[in-house]
Design goal:
Helices cover 68% and strands 1% of the residues. The chain has 543 residues and is mainly alpha-helical.
């Protein structure tokens, strides 16, 4: 493989040609099943458990007809994320660097913002365990939650470090979480007469699409609409799926699942229990021979199927949680926020089914949320590893200069958002320096991919444990929820450029790897939808 790197780290683009090998033989769907359900499991952590039930409990069924539309729009986004990896064995972030390095580094900054407040991901799961166990005894609730947050972070680190293959760890955890959440909530619905009694009205609402008269691709808001809930609605739209940056994990899971040309690329394996696998700095393409095209089409059809499975699995989970909220919370006029949605329903189940009912509901909430830390740490570690291993390696010679440039770039995006929380601001000053130093040092000293990955995953967990004891930066948390909608629009636009224009020019198979016109149009529609939603939110907030 050609390793000479001539392009400028800022003003050039990733231009190393692909290695060329035949398309990997398709082994059957059962052998590669995984990325779709991982995506579904991740998606269940916020929109499905928190935001959609909140909207239903407060506004009834006003928005439900829009939910399947927003869910299906995630399909085209995922499909093109997976297509690039299927054709090249590279992550989509490598593709963004092939568009241009400046664009690649902008996308990297978006990712760092999204994963900056890592301590919060275990908060709700820890709250569930505190409510169930009341452990440690004698401690106040806040201290108990912090204890469980630290413990869950340590458990997360140990599982990932000792799991032989990082992807398999995430796959198992997310699959268990997705199945427990899906069937647990379905069982809760079926076991509750009050919920079943409103089933007819609930499902009839899917046929009542209330359209914004000014912008038909946006929903009309109800008469009692609270403008402050605009951010909730936008977040619900984005998280009718994983959302924004989170969706890009699908590209990595396709890669480590050995799909298509990724079968020629090694996986991330544990330095403690796994055997090292070679991970090249650039991907592997194929020529347009009849045999290769036949195999390629099998992989693409499987990508469609796997992606559809994840979208539908996630969509029906939203149906169960929204139905439960409509049957229990809405009639009582209860509109609790965040984790309170589950605890309130847990108390209702305690009245109906006794203490076991409350515990079951809290356990379901735990399964919804515990898995997020695994996937967040895995995804951020992969993104950092890609930029250090592919973007910096072989292109930088000075650690101080590289650290300074990286630090300034990241600080511009992150530090202003943490103003108002002095201790957190101080932590981020140090954190961004360590990230920059780790990336520069690993690139110059030729670290292997997995060494970068596990080093950053460890840093991710350490920072998460520290953040538990700090004041959360409200500006950052609010910004990330809205930023993800903008990122979804930006990344969809990037995929239109990458897969329709750039990929056919640099791939030996040319137009054979380009999406069809139908796919292009559907992704274009999705992109317009995300841009309109972003603009609408800005307009509403500015008055």
């Amino acid at each position: 493989m050609a390793e000479e790197k001539k392009s400028h780290i800022i003003f050039g683009r990733l231009d190393i040609p692909f290695e060329v090998k035949d398309v990997a033989k398709f082994p059957g769907y059962a052998a590669v099943f995984g990325p779709g359900i991982i995506w579904a499991g991740l998606s269940q952590g916020s929109g499905e458990l928190i935001w959609w039930p909140y909207l239903v409990s407060k506004y009834g069924l006003w928005f439900m007809a829009w939910m399947p539309i927003w869910a299906i729009l995630q399909w085209w986004y995922n499909q093109e994320l997976g297509r690039y990896t299927l054709a090249t064995g590279e992550s989509v972030y490598d593709g963004f660097m092939r568009i241009h390095f400046i664009w690649g580094w902008v996308c990297f900054a978006f990712a760092v913002i999204m994963f900056s407040w890592v301590g919060g991901y275990q908060g709700a799961a820890a709250s569930a365990m505190t409510a169930i166990t009341k452990f440690p005894p004698g401690w106040d609730t806040k201290s108990q939650v912090r204890f469980w947050m630290v413990l869950l972070n340590i458990i997360t680190w140990l599982i990932v470090m000792f799991g032989p293959v990082a992807y398999r760890v995430v796959e198992v955890i997310e699959t268990l979480a997705a199945i427990a959440s899906f069937f647990g909530m379905l069982a809760a619905v079926l076991a509750t007469p009050e919920v079943l009694a409103v089933g007819g009205k609930f499902f009839a609402s899917f046929l009542s699409l209330k359209v914004n008269p000014a912008i038909p691709i946006l929903p009309k808001v109800p008469p009692n609409w609270d403008v402050a809930d605009t951010a909730v609605l936008i977040t619900s739209i984005t998280y009718t799926g994983a959302g924004g940056i989170w969706n890009t994990g699908y590209s990595f899971w396709v890669r480590d699942g050995n799909w298509g040309q990724a079968a020629h690329v090694g996986r991330v394996t544990s330095p403690l229990t796994g055997k090292p696998e070679a991970i090249p700095s650039v991907g592997v393409a194929f020529e347009a021979t009849p045999e290769n095209i036949a195999e390629w089409k099998k992989w693409v059809r499987t990508l469609w199927l796997d992606n559809l499975f994840g979208v539908l699995f996630n969509m029906f989970t939203i149906v169960w949680t929204a139905w439960l909220s409509y049957g229990i919370l809405h009639p009582a006029g209860l509109t609790p926020k965040g984790w309170q949605l589950v605890t309130v329903q847990g108390e209702w189940f305690a009245k109906a089914f006794g203490e076991p009912g409350r515990i079951v509901m809290l356990l379901l909430g735990f399964f919804f949320l515990f898995d997020i830390q695994f996937t967040a740490g895995d995804l951020m570690s992969r993104i950092v590893s890609d930029y250090a291993y592919v973007g910096l390696k072989g292109r930088v010679k000075s650690i101080p200069k590289t650290v300074i440039l990286m630090y300034i770039w990241l600080a511009i995006f992150i530090l202003p958002l943490s103003i108002g929380a002095p201790a957190t601001f101080a932590l981020y000053v140090v954190y961004l320096f360590v990230v920059s130093l780790l990336m520069a040092y690993s690139a110059i000293h030729d670290w292997e991919y997995r060494k970068i990955y596990y080093s950053f995953f460890t840093l991710f967990i350490i920072v998460g444990c520290i953040q538990i004891f700090l004041k959360s930066p409200a500006t950052l948390i609010l910004s990330t929820g809205i930023l993800n909608m903008a990122v979804q629009a930006i990344f969809c636009t990037s995929l239109l450029v990458l897969n329709w224009y750039v990929l056919p020019k640099i791939h030996p198979a040319g137009k054979e790897v380009r999406p069809s016109w139908i796919t292009f149009i559907l992704l274009l529609f999705s992109t317009i939808m995300w841009w309109y939603c972003t603009a609408w939110y800005i307009q509403v907030r500015l008055g």
